[in-house]
Amino acid sequence: MSYGLVEVNATLNATSGVLLASAFICIKKGKWRAHGWLMASATLVSAVFLACYLTYHALHGEKSTQAHAGDWLRWVYLLVLLPHLLLAVIMLPMIFTALWRAYHRQWGPHKRIALPTFWIWMYVSFTGVIVYFMLYHTRLVS
């Protein structure tokens, strides 16, 4: 069974996480230019993910509520999914704020928002891949 866009979405989530981790390493090493390019790339990859995610759900509907009721794996899945979704929504304005402050070279305010944004974004990228595997490679959905 092939899902097409779901694999693309999982790949984009993983790619975003790798770009974010690389950007974090670069900023810690003082490589500001590389950090900037990596963050721009992570933002672009995440934007492509969002477009693909919305396209998939517009074409195929929502799958997470089709998970089998009463199944212990469903509860584990929901414990991963719910904070993932909440933080995915919360992180969007945080990302825009961090990018805005970096663009305007407001480094102090940028640093204050960038670190929590980074950890939330990493969490969402990582759990996005976990959600994909749980939903499409376990017995959650028939």
Describe the structure.
By secondary structure, the chain is mostly helical. Helix 1 (5-28) runs antiparallel to helix 4 (107-136) and helix 3 (72-103) runs antiparallel to helix 4 (107-136). The model has no long low-confidence stretch (mean pLDDT 90). It is elongated and about 50 Å long. It has one domain. Helix content is 81%, strand content 0%.
Distance between the termini: 11 Å
Number of strands: 0
Tell me the radius of gyration. 17 Å
Main β sheet profile: none
Tally of contiguous helical segments: 4
- Low-pLDDT ranges: none
Helix content: over 70%
SSE series: HHHH
Shape: elongated
Mean pLDDT: 90
Indicate how many domains the architecture comprises.
1
Strand content: under 5%
Helical/strand content category: mainly alpha
Give the SSE map.
Elements: H1 5-28, H2 32-60, H3 72-103, H4 107-136
What is the structure about, briefly put?
The protein is mainly α and 142 residues long. It has helices spanning 5-28, 32-60, 72-103, 107-136. The protein has 4 helices and no strands.
Annotation keywords:
single chain, 142 residues, mainly alpha, 4 helices, 81% helix, elongated
